[in-house]
Specification:
This protein is mostly helical and 295 residues long. It has one domain. Helix content is 79%, strand content 0%. It contains 13 helices and no strands. The longest helix is centred in the C-terminal third of the chain and has 32 residues, at 263-294. The two termini are 29 Å apart. 44% of the residues are buried.
Length: 295
């Protein structure tokens, strides 16, 4: 299987996540917890049967940072599921995909990277897109605003995952993901214990089946496919294919859930996804030029 096909499969599956999450009769926190537990089991089996070489030793400092980023990922999952509960899948996804824009702004501050005029323009246009999505969603109790806030919260935590991972070098994708899932499960476990424990024993068989699909397919297998593909793909290609996820999610919202997208939200979607995609493509081209100079 080619790296491109692996990536396309993973991104397409990510876009269908809401179909299954909405059929799980558990709180967002508990759904996220079991998602991580099931995914850990899947990754352990993958590592045991497909990666028989001894894993590279991960230092305590790197493990700590990855564990911390995993905790952020756990909250990110829960907030995204909450967004699905309070607004359409399309709007939740658009708010969530503001994460790259947050990274664009914070990377120069945290890593002393220079922000070019092109990056600034991408940030401004994507922010305009978000304003259109929020404005069209309405600020009242019947509007999309609560869901948008949860989506933006998920985006902020995902951005923190990306930024923390930028500081951790020389750790393989599978080991990196495994440690992060440990962090996600640990934090969500503590939160659930304070919230009154687990309710999975009282849920339906339909919820269990959908939870298994989310944990095994959308998390364990898809994360493995994604991380095993990006190491063999150009950055520009990875950036372009990553937008299969929101594209599929919007199709799911419109054609499966029959959720309407307002004209202003459609324009906002083009601005958010279009300009963040352009930014990632530009970054990928810059990376290629740097490697060519080194050669």
């Amino acid at each position: 299987m080619t790296p491109q096909l692996k990536n396309i499969m993973a991104m397409s599956a990510f876009g269908t996540l809401a179909i299954f999450v909405r059929n799980i009769a558990l709180s967002s926190m508990e759904t996220a917890f079991w998602r991580g537990v099931i995914a850990l089991a899947v990754l352990w089996l993958i590592r045991k049967f497909f990666y028989r070489r001894t894993s590279v030793v991960v230092t305590a400092s790197k493990r700590g940072l990855l564990f911390l980023s995993g905790m952020a990922a756990g909250i990110n999952w829960a907030l995204l599921f909450m967004a699905y509960e309070h607004t359409s899948v399309a709007v939740a996804t658009l708010a969530y995909y503001f994460a790259p824009v947050i990274v664009i702004v914070l990377a120069p501050i945290l890593f002393k990277e220079k922000m070019t005029l092109f990056q600034l323009a991408c940030f401004a246009m994507a922010t305009l897109g978000l304003v259109l999505v929020i404005g069209a969603g309405g600020l009242g109790s019947d509007g999309d605003f609560p869901g948008i806030l949860f989506g933006l919260g998920a985006a902020a935590f995902y951005a923190s995952v990306v930024l923390i991972n930028k500081t951790v070098k020389d750790v393989g994708g599978l080991d990196r993901t495994f440690i992060q899932f440990e962090g996600a499960v640990a934090l969500l476990l503590v939160i659930l214990l304070f919230q009154g424990g687990f309710h999975i024993q009282n849920t339906s068989s339909t919820s269990i089946v959908n939870l298994l699909i989310v944990g095994i397919l959308h998390t364990g297998l898809c994360y493995w496919l994604y991380f095993s593909s990006i190491k063999d793909m150009p950055g520009q290609q990875t950036a372009i294919l990553s937008y299969i996820d929101p594209f599929v999610a919007i199709l799911v919202s419109v054609f499966i859930f029959r959720e309407a997208i307002r004209p202003a939200q459609a324009v906002g979607a083009v601005l958010i996804l279009g300009f963040t995609c352009l930014h990632e493509i530009g970054k990928g081209r810059q990376g290629v030029r740097i490697r060519e100079k080194r050669v």
